[in-house]
Amino acid sequence: MSLPVAPPVVEPPSEWGRLDPRMIVVKPLNELIGLLPLLFALVFLGNVETWRVVAGVGTVALIILYGLFAWLTTKYRITDTQVELHTGVVFRQRKAIPRDRIRTVDLTAKLGHRLFGLSAVRVGTGQQERQAGEGVALDAVTTAEAERLREVFLLRQKPVEQDGEQEVERDTETVITRLDRRWYRYAPLSLSGLVGIAVTVGFAMNLVNELDVEFSEVAALRGIASWITGQPLAAVLLTAAAAVLVLSTAASLLTYSLQNHGFRLTRHADDTLRVRRGLLTTRSVSIEEQRLRGVALHEPLLLRAGAARGSTR
């Protein structure tokens, strides 16, 4: 039985081009989503003062301008031999990766990307990109363009001889594993929940101190303080420990769900492995199987009850 002919991989033009103009909106939007708690506290906590409103509006304006200049100063091109990226608002950066060294393609779509149908494409050589400053990130291109670039970089479609003609295999996938709901029981065994609570409390206390917010002005806090002063120390400590345990568990489960929702590990007909996961921010990472050097298993103390974290090398 003959295989259906798939469309050929179309190489992108080798001229310099710009990213999708919607990046002007998407980049500031992604930044502002992360700053929403800080901006809310700056403007609304304590007395509503003019300088706080001006500072909040000024911060938003600067982030929007940064997105505009980032788009204007970013250009890229893909030639037969390498991927080049020139970017930088204050400090110019020029990066290039030989195409024959590309080992991974990472498609990431944050909430702002998803609202506008865009994705960020990062290509890497399998080295420690975050530490060595390697890797080229195209933020942002359309989702369809991101998938096409993945095909180009990893040569997903390979010609095969059949009946004297060259045909291309249909892209099929084999599911190696997918998210098992039983994995959620291991989420609270990590320290991510406790760390998240500690960071949040520390940030909140520092923010309250900077904004000169008086606890006596908040009725709920006055009620808690009154209850604490009227209870034995043991009861207060037990209640605090129970509250930390509940909040830590909830935070760990929420974090695990946001990061690993829809997790799937698949093998494709073009000899690549692909990992997809994420709820608000979706991520799809492809790696050529023949360039996979190994797998590392990490077993923190609390996870040794039957679980581990894995990573490729």
Automatic annotation (TrEMBL):
> Which key words are in the record?
Membrane, Transmembrane, Transmembrane helix
From the record, give the transmembrane residue ranges. 51-72, 186-208, 233-258
- PANTHER family linked to this entry: UPF0699 TRANSMEMBRANE PROTEIN YDBS, UPF0699 TRANSMEMBRANE PROTEIN YDBT
Where are the annotated coiled coils located?
none
What's this protein's name?
PH domain-containing protein
Give the top-rank taxon of the lineage listed in the UniProt record for this protein: Bacteria
Q: Which InterPro entries match?
A: YdbS-like_PH (IPR005182)
* YdbS-like PH domain segment(s): 71-151
**Source species:** Actinokineospora soli
